[in-house]
Amino acid sequence: xxxxxxxxxxxxxxxxxxxxxxxxxxxxxxxxxxxxxxxxxxxxxxxxxxxxxxxxxxxxxxxxxxxxxxxxxxxxxxxxxxxxxxxxxxxxxxxxxxxxxxxxxxxxxxxxxxxxxxxxxxxxxxxxxxxxxxxxxxxxxxxxxxxxxxxxxxxxxxxxxxxxxxxxxxxxxxxxxxxxxxxxxxxxxxxxxxxxxxxxxxxxxxxxxxxxxxxxxxxxxxxxxxxxxxxxxxxxxxxxxxxxxxxxxxxxxxxxxxxxxxxxxxxxxxxxxxxxxxxxxxxxxxxxxxxxxxxxxxxxxxxxxxxxxxxxxxxxxxxxxxxxxxxxxxxxxxxxxxxxxxxxxxxxxxxxxxxxxxxxxxxxxxxxxxxxxxxxxxxxxxxxxxxxxxxxxxxxxxxxxxxxxxxxxxxxx
Length: 413
Known about the structure:
- The chain has 17 helices and nine strands.
- It is of the alpha/beta class.
- It has a five-stranded parallel beta sheet with strand order 5-6-7-8-9. A two-stranded parallel ribbon has the order 1-2.
- The protein is globular and about 70 Å long.
């Protein structure tokens, strides 16, 4: 859950953990910082909260976070914190010049945004400013303490926009002084150096969490194993299932978490928010598609090697909150995330059709427990199981009839 683009009150997050426990989802990945805001209460680097929170009221205090971790554990849900870097790091980092530390982050809130980042607002850490690493080190150690020494820690690490670094004199001077140019490979090496130093800061404590990184141009590129050793990292794959990212990473020896956006991103299929039309990952991911998305295979690959299958640690349903908040998150997540849970725990050979009746009843159970799960069928269908959902043997007939109806409609028009 992303709580940086929209501040989600703590009670709503506890409600989510309750619902997760009803569905046997056992890890809550908390993406709580991004370029939009930094709502974490830092007592070690208080400037981060002062400059980064939407308001004084929209802050997660350290006590609240510690309580939430215990709340989750008591329900069988572990919390994985994410401090995104080097991209997705803007608001909260703009105080460097006032403290004689230089620019900690670059391109903050800069426009026009398509030139400098993947979505507004912009912000990307300055990899040649040594103060950045000292601050990251302090934040990592503080967060590890507040989150009760988690065994996993998400470092973010995707969607770096080289245009931002390539338009910064400080970085260009550093590159020239280190006999590096301005090619894509040079910027990937700079990115890799950033990741190495950040990793050292994260793992410098006695409690050494295993870091997680999103797939990215660095992870998916030729320099991946140089800067991101497979023995040290877990990679979360959000690339589409029709790519070869999953088999390639497994062949390189990485452990992975599957979260392909073409099936398990729950924010897809809604209106565009930076332009008209639909958002970037449309269409909507219906529960049937989500259920049939398998972590071991897709339309283009099939993982059969036992060691590689073992290295697929699990999967994740993600809700990014550009267009969702506490009022809408229940219906965006549920009951679709339940389909992810069954796929990951059981991975049945059968598809969604076999699970259809059970899903309808399960949605009703969630509602009875106070979860605002979205409606899947008319109530009459729930009371008359088997009379609404078309049988698998009839799919081709229905598809033909639907196409014929559409054709006739076009002729009438």
